[in-house]
Write a structure and sequence with these properties.
Layout lengths: L1 H11 L1 H8 L9 H6 L14 E9 L2 E8 L8 E4 L9 H13 L4 E7 L6 E10 L2 H8 L6 H5 L2 E4 L11 E8 L7 E5 L7 H7 L4 E4 L3 E2 L13 E2 L3 E3 L2 E4 L6 E7 L2 E7 L9 E4 L5 E3 L2 E2 L9 E4 L1 H10 L1 H6 L1 E5 L5 E3 L13 E5 L2 H11 L4 E3 L9 E5 L3 E4 L2 E2 L11 E7 L4 E6 L25 H11 L1 E7 L7 E3 L2 E2 L22 E5 L1
Parallel strand pairs: 18-19
Antiparallel strand pairs: 1-2, 2-7, 3-5, 3-6, 4-5, 7-28, 8-32, 9-30, 9-32, 10-11, 12-13, 14-15, 14-24, 16-17, 16-23, 19-22, 20-21, 20-22, 25-26, 25-29, 27-28, 27-29, 30-31
């Protein structure tokens, strides 16, 4: 078959590849590995790139496969690149950039691109050819051109351009067969933000990936200015953590028949929790969870750590609403600067605006008990994550005309037979730190993937439904307590090291 032919070709030419590209050949695929992933070569880059796979048995019905594809192409591939030039950028700006480059004696190249489905056309100007990022930066800072023009320039490896077809790519795949796997797939999070590997170790999870998109990403050393919350639906083992929006949702649920997963858009189920007045039996459905009120008639429930954080970063919105503490036994009390006391972990905070402000104030005055349960009735093993975009729906690819870029990716897919595929593709590793995989500053570890490439990978896996999860610096896969991907934190404070980004939730496989 094509992959075996490709691997035989790779092994036969390995001395030449090693001499030209520093590639080390490995043995052909095992029979067991053939059964886990498709035999055909991975649809990343040009045809018949060298590709190796390494499989690891995790649990009955759970296999982890690491795939390496492509190679580092030696040469001077660092350039000084412009930002995106499109119809909104004046011709004068492009002409001035070209003149700036040429005045420094640099050769100029224009790469033209078009978004899928006849979307936006754009181009990028690049200048020079450098062996390392440092060399490109040294020339960039000395360019004698308008300061505003120079502010939009950056040192980039050409592998970051979407036309690059050599790789390399590091991809990790976990295949879960519910017919054989008897554990669970769950969402998990800690108090506040933390890294995926810590969440995995806290739950003794043999497999973990980062999951939902979130707001309020906190750069190290920078005071955050946004509430750290999921940017859409978040349910953690049957309990609401963030309200739904109209974006795509990835659901997993542990049932008597095994683990099930599916993708929805728009969000269809379940409904938001309701606040119940115990004596009268009257109810009111919440309008939000773990966010600040947006005005009008808003009734929002927050966990104590989210409210305490919100007060610090959005005190104006907090002051505009009536803030009420809801104790575990259903008693309400006003939260004001003069009456404030530390919130207990099992407290909830209700923020009310509009008609709900008067209603809650009257309830507090009457010392009437209320009940609020954030659990999804009858579904204690339901978890949900906000993803975007949907890649495949009911066997059909879902396309968008957005401009593409390569970065690290995390995604999940479900096959017709119920198998669940979790993947990560490392990216943005053009100037990697010292590591066994990096031979020099100019080396490339993994170039990342476009959304269309992730879709192609999912189609190659044979899934019927697939969704893109949070990527970029958030992308992490953990196997048996060890990080097997190459995460990066763009805003690392400890130098050029591979470190994990602090995230909100993770998808865990547990026993």
């Amino acid at each position: 078959m094509l992959l075996k032919k490709s691997l035989r070709y790779f092994v036969k030419l390995s001395p030449l590849l090693a001499a030209l590209f520093g590639v080390v050949a490995t043995a052909p695929l095992s029979t067991a590995m053939d059964r886990v992933l498709p035999e055909a070569e991975l649809p990343l880059g040009r045809v018949e790139l060298p590709e190796t796979r390494t499989a690891k048995f995790i649990r009955p019905g759970v296999t982890y496969v690491h795939v390496q594809r492509g190679y580092h192409l030696p040469g001077n591939h660092w350039v000084i690149a412009s930002g995106v030039l499109n119809a909104e950028i004046s011709e004068e700006t492009a002409t001035a950039l070209r003149a700036c480059f040429e005045s420094a004696g640099l050769d100029v190249r224009e790469d033209r691109f078009q978004a899928p489905l006849g979307g936006q056309q754009y181009s990028i100007l690049s200048a020079g050819e450098f062996a390392t990022k440092a060399e490109a930066i040294e020339v960039l800072v000395q360019l004698d051109c308008d300061e505003e023009l120079r502010a939009g320039l950056q040192a980039r490896h050409r592998a970051s351009f979407v036309s690059w077809a050599n790789g390399p790519w590091n991809m990790n795949v976990v295949v879960i067969d519910p017919a054989q796997f008897h554990g669970k797939l769950v969402s998990a999070r800690e108090r506040g933000v933390t890294v995926t590997s810590e969440i995995a170790r806290a739950h003794n999870a043999p497999v973990a990936i980062n999951a939902g998109f979130f707001h309020g990403y906190m750069r190290p050393g920078v005071v955050p200015n946004q509430l750290p919350s999921s940017s859409g639906t978040s349910i953690v083992r049957g309990e609401w953590y963030n309200e739904p929006d109209d974006g795509p949702v990835f659901f997993v649920e542990n049932t008597e028949e095994g683990v099930k997963a599916w993708v929805e858009q728009p969000h269809l189920s379940p409904p938001l929790p309701t606040l119940k007045w115990v004596s009268s039996g009257k109810t009111a459905q919440l309008t939000g969870i773990n966010r600040m009120p947006r005005g009008g008639d808003d009734l929002v429930a927050l966990r104590p750590e989210i409210y305490e954080y919100a007060e610090r970063v959005d005190s104006g919105a907090a002051a505009a609403a009536l803030a009420v503490r809801l104790s575990k036994v259903g008693l309400l009390s006003l939260i004001t600067p003069s009456t404030a006391r530390p919130l207990a972990d099992d407290d909830l905070v209700l923020l009310a605006t509009g008609k709900w402000r008067a209603k809650l104030a009257a309830t507090v005055a009457a010392r009437e008990r209320v009940a609020l349960d954030l659990r999804v009735p009858g579904r204690p093993e339901l978890s949900a994550f906000r993803g975007v975009p949907i890649l495949i729906k009911d066997g059909e690819p879902v396309w968008a005309d957005r401009r593409e870029s390569r970065t690290s990716r995390t995604a999940a897919g479900i096959a017709a037979d119920g198998k669940i595929y979790l993947i990560t593709i490392d990216g943005d590793q053009y100037a990697p730190p010292t590591s066994p995989a990096a031979s020099a500053e100019g080396g490339v570890v993994s170039v990342g993937a476009k959304i269309s490439e992730v879709r192609d990978v999912m189609r190659w896996l044979g899934v019927e439904n697939a969704i893109n999860l949070d990527g970029g610096g958030s992308t992490v896969m953990v196997i048996d307590g060890e990080v097997v991907s190459s995460p990066y934190e763009r805003f690392a404070t400890d130098g050029n090291h591979l470190i994990e980004r602090r995230i909100l939730d993770a998808l865990l496989l547990i026993d």
